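Q: Hi! First time doing this. I have a protein sequence and I read that you can turn it into a structure. Is that right? Here it is:
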Amino acid sequence: MPWWSWILIWVALVACTLVGLLLGGIYLFRKGMAVMRGAAEDLERVTARPPAAQTADDAGPAVVVRVPGSAVFADPERLREEYERGREQRRLARRDRRVARRRERGQMQSLSDLGLN
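A: Yes, that's right. Below is the predicted 3D structure, encoded as structure tokens:
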């Protein structure tokens, strides 16, 4: 084997190593950026403060959005009343969506949905 073949072999080995390191670095950089983007979104979601109250246009009273953990020191009776009121509002909203969906599809309405039962 001539002496210059060893130089070609070593140049090829070093070039392949550098290409492998470059591709590995690009891969790790892209994965790291994806992780940082996800962490930033999670951090933004966690640190974002909910609005004190959200109101719907003529849909009823304001809905209070609570900070997690605030119920620990709240009055249980008041929380129970809010829960019951919210449950009733959700039930009525489901009924309204069901009535609208059936009207839209031309289906028969339930008497209990229309309040005739």
